[in-house]
Amino acid sequence: MDRTAGLSLASAPGRWLVAVAVLGSALAQVEATVVNVALPSIGTGLGADVSHLQWVLNAYLLTLASLVLLGGSLGDRLGRRRVFIVGTMLFCVASTVCALAPDLSVLIAARAVQGVGAALVVPGSLAMLESMLAPGDRARGIGLWSALGGIAGAVGPVLGGVLVEVSWRWVFILPVPLGLLAAAAARQHLPQADDCELHGAAARERAEQGPAPSRARQSLDVAGTLLVVLALGGLTFALVQASVGPLWMVWASGGLGLAAAVAFVLVEQHAHDPLLPLRIFASRQFSAANLLTFVVYAALGGVFFLLVVVLQTGLGYSPLIAGAATLPITLVMLVLSARAGQLAQKIGPRLPLTGGPLVIAAGLLLLSRLAPGSSYLHDVLPAVLVLAFGLSATVAPVTATVLAAVPAQQAGVAAGVNNAVARTAQLIAISALPLVVGLNGTAYTDPQAISEAFATAMRMCAVLALTGAAIAWAMIRTPPPRSRAIPPRAGAGESDTVAGRAPSRPPSESSARAVVPPAAGPIGGPAELMADRRSSRPVGRQAPEVTHGPISAAMDAAMDAATGEAPLVGKRQLWHCAVADPPPLTAVLLGEPAPLSAPRTSSPGPDGQRHHG
């Protein structure tokens, strides 16, 4: 394989790469949807109460949320292909044990092992596409991966309903052939060389940055991993057992979880290779997008846990019909998610991420009206469609916002953090919601009791969605439109009034700087210059440094009055620029800007974000 070109989708290895990645992600995607449909049947078959059903879901989510970041790190360290194969095989073994489980204890333990396998597979699926495909095929390959994964999610609930009609145990047999096929294909058709190495554009970018640290110098954050498992495990146990367990045990496990969470933050601050690099949260946009992810996915975790139960117990649907009832959600998202992402890219993320959760809240309020005797066409379907429209407007834009808020080399970490936040939110929601709405014991088998608890839960989830809308409106910022990079044009210089943007190229040697009121001290840089204060037309020049400093009223007035040429204040020429940090910083460049002559790149700003021209 050509290390500088990567795998082409026109080649057999390239097509096998996409197929393997799709099969791997389908493992987790299908299992997450079909198990929900099987919950009432599992409860009947094994004599489970609500807390046991919570653990059937939470055991999987707990290990997945705790270890997904470690899974990504192991892939970077040991080889993504190798870790992917190990993860799929572990998932298959655990699934087989789930299918054969004689009691709830064995089922819950095997579900936890399933989560470990998924934590190794999920980050590797996308990472292999990103690192192994040729740059020209990467977008298409990821698009195929996303679309085929969406189809797997759509088929999952219906297929799960068909299997549950036979036996709930077949739900856990379903992933086994998928996993075996994925592992065999990865071993047979993917490159056997060190798949940690980057290919194509990624390889060239790494070469420009210098050699990567050797594996001998890399270390796994074992302490951080253990602490996050203790934190999530302790809090989950306390929430699930609060209604059934001894009070002292609830308080002890909750206290242990909180203490472990505090210790985790302290350890990560000083770790050489932290599991969770806390500095990434210095970006306000990244923090806001993840906070939005948490509240929205907490609401969704509660919805999808209880919806299939109330459809079967409260409305009397069979497992097959209950699984098919949620199919419109996936179908609408398949059609609209990409368009929502394009719209957010065009108008910015703030409006979609405010409107999407508002629509989700409306759908949840409609779902809260479900009761025994409700009609699918008049009650269930409208609510499900409204929820689907809200999800379509939210999911793709929030993911894009997370990735755009960090430097390019931290995109993998950012995606892993966002994935872990979403899983953790679902874990906490599934743990806490039955306790809060008073659903315990075998109440889920009583149509009236489950319907009343479901109505209360949906109203609470709607509040979470509204909170997400408020977070987006208050904290998400739409960055200024990104400029097109063009080579320096003839005559660009003294005759242009310019406005600057985020750095798109490294500065040439120059002493020019920009000043920004009101404080003193360096901000960062470089800042690309635009044709005028109100235009995004680049002139091929930039300020290599942006520094806080005084701007006089005369300077500001001169910039306001400028139209066709850079103004002079005394004998000093002024160039207007704006550094694209949220919110944009207005600055004035003192002196001649440097020409843009180096290849296009991107540089981290003062808040750790990577800005692209």
TrEMBL record:
Major subcellular site: membrane
Major facilitator superfamily (MFS) profile domain boundaries: 17-480
Gene3D superfamilies the UniProt entry points to: MFS general substrate transporter like domains, Multidrug resistance protein D
Biased composition (Low complexity): 501-518
Keyword flag Oxidoreductase: no
UniProt membrane topology term: Multi-pass membrane protein
Protein name as annotated: Drug resistance transporter, EmrB/QacA subfamily
